[in-house]
Design brief:
Elements: E1 13-14, E2 17-18, H1 27-43, H2 82-94, H3 115-126, H4 131-284, H5 289-332, E3 333-335, H6 337-364, H7 369-380, H8 386-400, H9 407-421, H10 429-442, H11 444-457, E4 464-466, H12 476-483, E5 487-488, E6 491-492, H13 495-514, H14 526-539, H15 544-565, H16 567-586, H17 592-604, H18 623-626
Antiparallel strand pairs: 1-2, 3-4, 5-6
Length: 647
């Protein structure tokens, strides 16, 4: 700590008066200065009580004529001891007193000052310097005492302040040290916690990586097993097909040999019979040669005719039966040739798949009914929401790819369950159409089998119509079964039940052909729907069955057909109104009136301009979320070309 320089708190000069008086002042100047100081001290409240004067001093000049020159007499207080008086009297007689002119000098009567100050004051008064110098010395001493007191107070205040600052510094340093230690402890805990978190995250990451590697290895093993199972099934299927072809070939050859042997035996039997008859006639006839000659000629002719009939029967029986069947069917069947060809191709595929599935069931000796029930349950759960359609499509496609069940069996089950389910009243045909389009876009064979099931359940989905003929059908019941009636409890179902099922099948077909999913190709879309209605109006007759089928189709697909074909669709409606409905009105059949009114109101009210209820799913369908696996994401954009044509 540096040296402290102490200075007076007062100014160096006050009203032109210096703090340190000039010793060379004149007496008059000193008197005037003292008077001004006394005046100021009297007006100040900080002046001590002993120096408060009742009246100001007035020192006159010693040279004044009015000044009396009397000796200075010092009086002692009456309270002093008597011996002190005697000593003073003796001193007074010995020492001559110096005279002072103090007539007008005012001295304080206060006894508050201590003995020491009185003695000092008396010493100054007793000196040779005079009264003014004594007063000045008194003031100087008082000033020095005040300055010393002020200095002591200042030093004590500084010491107190310094001690307070030291204590504050020590307390602050203690708090800083304590805070530093607490902060260090907190940082240590945070570092420990952070390191623990890092270790846990690293352990979790390593665990996840290990689990991922295990999962990948399991997937690879499963894929290898499924590929091996698929190759084995494919090999067995190929072996079964080869065996089937060989058996069919052997069967045809054996049948041909049997037919040849039967024809040969029949010819030999006829020859023997003719020979026997000729011998009997020859033995019994004895009338004339002419008669016997005629009889011989007739026997030879009959033998030749018998031989020719036997050979013709053995060779041309099958062709004659086929011609008769074709002629009978041609007389009662109404359908376009292109539609019949497509139907025949689909039914042929259906037959092949069915035979293959039977062979697979025998080969595997396993019951696949659990997969079929699972597919049926998924189809029952289909509803008109985007999430449900996506989920069910994905689940069905997973069953198709399940190595535990051959794909042909699951596809056939899917087609069968979809068609049988459409008879339910709560069935959502539009949502089912979306599922069919999404599934068949990945497995095109499923569309062929589904259409084949529809053709078997309802002939008007081809479209075709069968006319009743006594020559072609043994009874009315046989005809009803041919056009799709079901037999229940040994009885043919009623017309109303049949028409209700016909309506449900046609609604499913109409919903299927108009379904459009972004990024996905409908293998049986609007083009096939336009072909269906053209074939329908060109070849099918107008009756109650065809009217119900047409109205159900228009309700489902009319809106989409109008949006695409516009004026062509309006021309189609004009043909229906002018031709089809006119023929219906001319027919006198029960139940036709209601369906005629429905078709007329559909066209007059222009219901084809309004989107059918339930056609748009609740929420937009995105092809990216409907693809079940990553390997099939590009399949929606690379679909196989449509293989069907209606011309």
């Amino acid at each position: 700590m540096g040296a402290v320089k102490l200075e007076l708190r007062c100014h160096q000069r006050i009203d032109g008066i210096a703090v340190d008086p000039d010793p060379d002042w004149k007496f008059d100047t000193l008197l005037s200065e003292l008077n001004s100081l006394e005046t100021k001290l009297n007006t100040s409240t900080k002046v001590p009580a002993p120096f408060i004067k009742a009246r100001p001093r007035d020192f006159s000049n010693e040279k004044s004529a009015n000044t009396s020159r009397r000796p200075f007499v010092m009086h002692v207080s009456d309270d002093e001891m008597e011996d002190t008086e005697s000593e003073v009297e003796e001193d007074r007689s010995l020492v001559a007193a110096k005279r002072f002119n103090c007539d007008k000098l005012y001295l304080s009567n206060s006894d508050d000052s201590d003995d020491e100050s009185d003695l000092e004051f008396q010493s100054y008064l007793m000196g040779e310097v005079g009264s003014v110098e004594g007063v000045l010395c008194e003031l100087t001493d008082e000033h020095e005492l005040d300055v010393k007191e002020e200095i002591r107070n200042r030093i004590s205040a500084l010491e107190s302040d310094l001690m307070g600052q030291s204590e504050k510094s020590s307390s602050a340093l203690t708090r800083v040290e304590r805070y530093r230690e607490a902060r260090w402890e907190m940082d240590r805990k945070l570092d420990t916690h952070y390191q623990r978190k890092i270790a846990e995250a690293l352990d979790n990451h390593l665990t996840a990586v290990q689990r991922d590697h295990e999962l990948r290895s399991q997937i690879e093993e499963r894929k290898i097993r499924s590929d091996a199972a698929y190759e084995e099934a494919k090999r067995k299927e190929k072996a079964l097909q080869e065996e089937k072809v060989r058996q069919e070939k052997a069967k045809v050859e054996s049948e041909a040999r049997l037919r040849a042997e039967e024809a040969k035996s029949a010819a030999l039997e006829a020859e023997r019979r003719e020979a026997k008859e000729a011998a009997e006639r020859e033995a019994t006839e004895t009338s004339t040669r002419a008669a016997s000659g005629v009889a011989q000629e007739e026997a030879a002719r009959s033998q030749i005719d018998a031989n020719s009939r036997t050979s013709n029967e053995s060779k041309g029986f099958a062709s004659d039966a086929a011609k008769k069947s074709q002629s009978a069917i041609g007389n009662v069947l109404r359908a376009a040739e292109s539609a019949l060809n497509l139907e025949q191709g689909r039914l042929q595929k259906f037959k092949e798949i069915d035979e293959r599935n039977q062979a697979l069931r025998l080969t595997y000796n396993k019951d696949f009914s659990s997969f079929e029930r699972h597919i049926a349950r998924l189809i029952r759960q289909i509803s008109g929401t985007k999430e449900i359609v996506s989920e069910k499509s994905h689940d069905i496609f997973k069953i198709f790819n399940d190595p535990l069940c051959p794909q042909s069996i699951s596809i056939a089950a899917f087609a069968k369950k979809v068609v049988s389910r459409c008879e339910s009243p709560e069935y959502d045909v539009f949502a089912c159409g979306h599922v069919i389009v999404l599934v068949t876009s990945q497995v095109p064979l499923a569309m062929d089998l589904l259409l084949a099931e529809l053709h078997r359940a309802c002939i008007y989905t081809v479209p075709k119509h069968i006319i009743y003929s006594k020559s072609a059908f043994k009874s009315k019941e046989a005809y009803y079964k041919a056009i799709g009636y079901k037999e229940r409890d040994g009885k043919i179902e009623s017309v109303e039940d049949y028409l209700k099922r016909l309506d449900s099948y046609m609604r499913l077909y109409g919903a299927l052909i108009q379904t459009e999913v972004e990024g996905v190709q409908n293998l049986h879309g609007l083009k096939e729907g336009w072909a269906w209605i053209a074939r329908f109006l060109n070849t099918l007759p107008a009756n109650r069955y065809t009217a119900v089928a047409l109205y159900a189709f228009l309700q489902m697909a009319g809106f989409a057909l109008f949006r695409k074909y516009k004026s062509q669709f309006m021309k189609m409606l004009s043909i229906i109104s002018n031709n089809f409905l006119e023929v219906l009105k001319a027919r006198e059949e029960s139940g036709l009136r209601a369906i005629i009114v429905e078709i007329q109101s559909y066209m007059e009210d222009k219901r084809f301009l309004k989107e059918p209820e339930g056609r748009a799913l609740r929420g937009s369908l995105l092809s990216s979320v409907l693809v079940p696996e990553q390997n099939y994401q590009q399949s929606y954009h690379h679909q196989p070309p449509n293989r069907y044509s209606y011309y």
